[in-house]
Design goal:
Distance between the termini: 67 Å
CATH superfamily of the largest domain: Vaccinia Virus protein VP39
Shape: globular
Number of domains: 3
Bound molecules: S-adenosyl-L-homocysteine
Structural class: alpha/beta
Oligomer: single chain
């Protein structure tokens, strides 16, 4: 018999509403001895079957539910079908994309699994005990469904919370040792699949890069927290007079320089600054330096709930500074990828920044993660990237 998780009284509602996370505190007891990543049946206190889930013995999220039909076997065919469906959704939404996220974990009904595709190469992250247990099977299915040139794995700090060891390296074939070139909206980008951030590139910003570029023709652009300069490349392609990238990572800026060259942009049109954004924007405020468009795309400031307040201060600070550096009529594209800072809170933070900067600011568009990072309605936690495109008076 399959092991069972019996929930505490009153804790079954989220599971019945198809939320995939079963927290440690919701579990009354475990029947049987499930191993890490094993499939368990979830039951309510009064003995009603609720869902199939994967067991994570060391995580606060003790199990992740993935199937609410009692008679479905969670066998290889089941997961193959889920993978194929996830890939088919991307084909429908982003036909012909050279790089995109093919599987976005819980949001695609496959807990813990990230699959990003970069040309013929796939990069995978197994972020839960269940995904870890399915690792070999996942590789076999990806080979069958996509015939990639290589599959490699990248680590992520959340594996630690699951009690999983670090994992990076080739899973199949020979992943490219040097950066590869991928095409995004007709522009070319170097992506390092071995040492780049996340799986190599910020695929969640693809649509926003194209959108923000539309407003960059003929003007001076600041791309703060630039990483490899993807927003800047789009801006130059759209005719920006000059772009400045700021990042603390010399490696990221080196790839940004390579990306400018790869797309044929003259070196007179761009500047790379290896600097801390907080310090650099203050320096420019003191010098009276101004820009027409500023992009703020910082890393995740809030990694846990107790960091939200501090994160909010950080976000407010950079937004306040950016608003002071914008010329009248200028545009601010400001982002937060902290899932714990929701859209409302982020708008309030930017409101506070505008008030302190003494500028009238209008939101002209709400921005979010792209369609290859979908948000399942039963799992709002999948929504993490939010942005505001603002026009200052
Ligand atoms: N907009 C980018 C992604 C940005 S990721 C894109 O579209 O590809 C965030 C970046 O911020 C990382 O490259 C990281 O190196 C950089 N970073 C983190 N803290 C920083 C700081 N205080 N000052 C400057 N850059 C910072």
């Amino acid at each position: 018999m399959r092991p069972r998780l019996i929930l505490r009284p009153g804790k079954e509602k989220p599971v019945r509403q198809r939320h995939p996370w079963v927290f440690e505190g919701a579990v009354q007891h475990v029947e049987g001895r499930p191993g890490s990543g094993d499939v368990v049946d979830v039951f309510s206190t009064d003995g009603r079957w609720l869902a199939l889930a994967e067991f994570s013995p060391r995580s606060q999220i003790r199990a992740r539910a993935f199937c609410w039909e009692p008679d479905r076997p969670a066998d290889a065919g089941f997961w193959r079908e889920r993978l194929a469906a996830s890939i088919a959704r991307r084909r429908q939404l982003l036909p012909g994309a050279d790089a995109c996220r093919l599987v976005f974990a819980e949001s695609d009904g496959i807990p813990g699994l990230i699959v990003d595709h970069y040309g013929p190469h796939l990069v995978v992250q197994n972020l839960t005990a269940g995904a870890e247990a399915r690792r070999k099977q996942t590789v076999a299915h990806l080979l069958e469904l996509l015939s990639p040139a290589s599959i490699s794995e990248r680590d992520d700090p959340v594996r630690q919370k699951e009690g999983l060891r670090q994992a990076s390296g080739p899973l199949w074939g020979l992943p490219p040792a040097a950066p590869i070139t991928v095409v995004e909206h007709g522009l070319r980008f170097q992506v390092d699949l071995n040492t780049g951030h996340k799986t190599g590139f910020y695929l969640d910003q693809t649509a926003n890069r194209a959108l923000v570029a539309r407003f960059c023709g003929g003007v001076e652009v600041l791309n703060a927290f630039s990483y490899t300069g993807a927003f800047a490349v789009h801006a130059l392609a759209a005719g920006a007079a000059h772009v400045t990238n700021i990042d603390t990572s010399a490696e990221a800026l080196a790839l940004a320089a390579a990306n400018f060259a790869l797309n044929g942009f003259d070196a007179s049109r761009w500047t790379n600054l290896e600097a801390d954004v907080f310090h650099q924007l203050r320096r420019w405020r003191d010098d009276g330096r101004q820009f027409d468009v500023i992009i703020l795309d910082p890393p995740k400031f809030a990694l846990s709930r107790d960091q939200v307040e501090r994160a909010a201060r950080g976000y407010k600070d950079i937004n306040w500074l950016a608003l002071r550096l914008l010329r009248p009529g200028g545009l601010l594209a400001t982002f937060s990828c902290s899932g714990l800072v929701d859209r409302d809170l982020y708008q309030k933070i930017v409101f506070g920044a505008a008030l302190d900067a003494g500028r009238d600011v209008r939101i002209v568009q709400h921005l979010s993660q792209g369609p290859d990072h979908p948000v399942l309605l039963t799992f709002p936690e999948g929504s993490y990237l939010k942005g505001l495109l603002c026009q200052v008076e």
